[in-house]
Automatic annotation (TrEMBL):
<dbReference type="InterPro" id="IPR050791">
    <property type="entry name" value="Aldo-Keto_reductase"/>
</dbReference>
<dbReference type="InterPro" id="IPR036812">
    <property type="entry name" value="NAD(P)_OxRdtase_dom_sf"/>
</dbReference>
<feature type="domain" description="NADP-dependent oxidoreductase">
    <location>
        <begin position="15"/>
        <end position="315"/>
    </location>
</feature>
<keyword id="KW-0560">Oxidoreductase</keyword>
<dbReference type="InterPro" id="IPR023210">
    <property type="entry name" value="NADP_OxRdtase_dom"/>
</dbReference>
<dbReference type="Pfam" id="PF00248">
    <property type="entry name" value="Aldo_ket_red"/>
</dbReference>
<protein>
    <submittedName>
        <fullName>Aldo/keto reductase</fullName>
    </submittedName>
</protein>
Length: 335
């Protein structure tokens, strides 16, 4: 495993572990003991960045993931970076598979969320605390000001924003310097994240890439939605897994297979190495619930693609044509 430094001096593994799928969005929550074993193995393999959020859970247990991650990381607390998020909840009353997101970043809500997250995560500080989605009713300056207070109090060490645009990032960073932006970024979702690169470079802010394998699609192992339960698996409604996408993505998967074979790596590793080799401040946080897949992802941090090879891949991606990719759940503002 290689390591990188994000924003205001936060050292993390060059590949982090996204823990969401253990509790949320990809079918039923997984057994805590089994996932604790997987997380222990990840620590063993050199992973130090673990990503969760207060809302990764189900109607039955809305905070399942923080509970799981907190218990699993307790023995390793001093060696790992815990990233979690505040500011949203899910509307579990909705009949849709992917539940609408309700936003709330009022300062009193954030303080309450933080105390509850600290308890569930069995720690006295959060290493990296993200605003999960912006709240149109609370100016980002107010949130950034509170983050500065929480840093001064020692309750959080760094902060970041998720699904953020450049203008909002600049406003936030001017109040309290930001360590990382966590945005969707993958070979199938390039433009919006890459448009932020000059600002990230200028401000010295890291990019933590979520859904870096396009929700697993870029592993090349899924052709269709078979096995995804429409009751609780968001992949059952994601465009890249639909029947019509098979044809639309044939060329893309062909390129992935060909280039990864040339390098003696898997398509999953290529999808991560491609972004790691672009900038020294990009850190993907792929998700998995399979212990056997941890080493594959960690090894992606060691793959060396030259700038020419990355550029060649970019031009293939630009001309290959591909299906749409999941763009996130609907956001509902608080009244
Ligand atoms: N900030 C936000 O708004 C936001 C939104 C979404 C996600 N996130 C964070 O980002 C993390 C990663 O997102 P993601 O889970 O969508 O990422 P991803 O890495 O693009 O996709 C994960 C999926 O890929 C599958 N997968 C992984 N390796 C595979 C392989 N070799 N072959 C076949 N399938 C494979 C996993 O299934 P298995 O479990 O079966 O391996 C899992 O379902 C999340 O855990 C969460 O922490 C943040």
């Amino acid at each position: 495993m290689k390591y990188r430094t994000l924003g205001q001096g936060l050292k993390v593994s060059a590949v982090g572990l996204g823990c969401m799928g253990m509790s949320h969005a990809y079918g039923r929550p997984h057994d805590h003991r089994e996932m604790a074993g997987l997380i222990a193995k990840a620590v063993d393999l050199g992973y130090t960045l673990f990503d969760t959020a207060e809302v990764y859970g189900t109607a039955a247990n809305p905070h399942d993931n923080e509970e799981l991650v907190g218990a699993a990381l307790e023995p390793y607390r001093s060696r790992v970076v815990i990233a979690t998020k505040f500011g949203v909840s899910f509307d579990f009353s909705s009949p849709s598979t992917n539940k609408p997101i309700l936003v709330d970043s009022r300062p009193q809500t954030i303080r309450r969320s933080l105390e509850a997250s600290l308890k569930r995560l069995r720690t006295d500080h959060i290493d990296l605390y993200y605003q999960h989605r912006q709240d149109p009713n609370v100016p980002v300056e107010e949130v950034a000001g509170l983050m500065g207070e929480l840093i001064a109090e020692g309750k959080i060490l760094h902060w970041g924003l998720s699904a953020v645009d450049e203008a909002t990032l600049r406003r936030a960073h001017a109040v309290t310097p930001v360590t990382a932006v966590q945005n969707r970024y993958s070979m199938m979702a390039r433009e919006a994240a890459e448009a932020l690169f000059p600002a990230l470079e200028e401000l010295g802010v890291g990019l933590v890439a979520y859904s870096p394998m396009a929700n697993g699609f870029l592993s090349g192992r899924y052709l269709g939605t078979a096995g995804f339960d429409p009751k609780d698996d968001y992949r059952s409604v994601m465009p890249q897994f639909q029947k019509e996408a098979v044809e639309q993505n044939r060329r893309l998967l062909g390129i992935m297979n060909e280039v990864s074979a040339e390098h003696g790596i898997t398509p999953a590793q290529l999808s991560l190495a491609w972004m790691i080799c672009k900038k020294p401040w990009i850190v993907p946080i792929p998700g998995t619930t399979k212990e056997a897949r941890l080493a594959e992802k960690a090894a992606a941090s060691e793959v060396q693609l030259t700038p020419g090879e990355v550029a060649a891949l970019d031009s293939e991606l630009a001309s290959s044509g591909m299906s749409a990719v999941f763009g996130g759940s609907r956001i509902v503002a608080r009244n």
